[in-house]
Design a protein that fits this description.
Layout lengths: L3 E3 L7 E4 L8 H14 L1 E4 L6 H9 L4 E2 L7 E2 L2 E8 L2 E2 L2 E2 L22 E8 L12 E5 H6 L3 H7 L3 E5 H9 L7 H11 L5 E5 L1 E3 L6 E3 L6 E4 L4 H15 L5 E4 L6 E5 L3 E5 L10 E7 L19
Parallel strand pairs: 2-3
Antiparallel strand pairs: 1-2, 3-17, 4-19, 5-6, 6-19, 7-8, 9-17, 9-19, 10-16, 10-18, 11-12, 11-15, 13-14
């Protein structure tokens, strides 16, 4: 059976209709995976998944990476990273403010994972019943395609240096240090040394061969061979182009939504416009570049929100 895809006006964020992910045959799965590869972000609403069913579906795409802070993984199913602002028995149930900047997950590793699958279990609402905590997505593949040819040529052999120290400063500058959730961010930072990771500004998608821009807001130290001022101006130009309003899909969450994003052809930004007693509970699985059952190199644990 052919899947039905309802497209947005944007390069990504298209919705796959009338699919029950608890029971997907091989033909339907192949079509879902093809849509995921082609568009970079897909949305599947109205699901009713247990944590084990989410893991089972995710493993059909790839091996699963685990978040480095075990306290934010489900104890009974650590492949699931919990994103939540809920306090339970005096402790955060999950990581609250992960990803509130334009980024691609796990840029801190040389070989970032394929992507992520986020499933909404509780969604915060305002007093009028409007959903809060939207997630914005932008296509780095479309961004590259729509650059002027001269700029494409300039970027072709350039690499940028990404800094974990700049990340810590950028995401932590306005966080109260005694807040329970902020302590989770501090713990994550302590897991890192002052790492400098070099990535090419134009990356080849490992599955589609498509060229994609690769940049992260606030964490690029410099572009190799450029002065800092010129580097920052170019990164700002690329980020502004990638996240221009006409190209950004903003997802308004509903309970039962499952959103898949690709780590190479998309960047995303979580909106933190809610606080308790408005509750948010999301379960996330992280897809490795390796297929399930593949013999791998020694595993790297995931700094999943970086």
């Amino acid at each position: 059976m052919s899947i039905e895809i309802i497209k947005t006006p944007y390069p990504l964020g298209h919705e796959i209709k009338n699919v029950d992910l608890r029971n997907v045959d091989e033909e339907t799965f192949t079509q879902i995976e093809a849509a995921y590869d082609q568009y970079g972000v897909i949305v599947i609403r109205n699901q009713n998944l247990t944590p084990q069913e989410q893991v089972n579906f995710s493993k059909r795409f790839a091996k699963l990476d685990r978040f480095v802070l075990e306290e934010f993984n489900l104890p009974e199913l650590p492949e699931i990273f919990v994103v939540s602002n809920i306090i339970q028995d005096g402790k955060p149930l999950g990581m609250d403010d992960a990803g509130r900047y334009w980024h691609s997950d796990m840029w801190v590793t040389q070989k970032p994972p394929r992507g992520s699958i986020l499933y909404a279990r509780e969604v915060p609402l305002d007093d009028q019943g409007k959903a809060l905590g939207d997630t914005c997505f932008a296509s780095t593949a479309d961004a590259y395609d729509t650059l002027p040819d001269l700029l494409k040529e300039k970027l072709e052999n350039l690499s940028a240096v990404f800094s974990s120290r700049l990340y810590a400063q950028f995401v932590g500058h306005d966080k109260p240090k005694d807040d329970l959730h902020s302590k989770g961010i501090v713990q994550a930072q302590k897991k890192l040394e002052d790492l400098l990771i070099t990535h090419k500004l134009v990356r080849i998608h490992p599955r589609t061969g498509r060229k994609c821009l690769y940049m992260v807001e606030g964490v690029v130290s410099h572009i190799v061979g450029m002065q800092e001022q010129e580097s920052q101006a170019l990164i700002a130009q690329l980020l502004k182009h990638t996240t221009r309003e006409s190209a950004v899909y903003r997802h308004s969450w509903r309970i039962g939504d499952l959103v898949m994003w690709d780590n190479y052809s998309a960047i995303h930004n979580a909106i933190g416009d809610f606080k308790l007693p408005q509750r948010r509970l999301m379960h996330r699985t992280t897809l490795s570049l390796l297929k399930s059952g593949t013999i791998s190199e020694p595993e790297e644990k995931s700094m999943a929100s970086m």
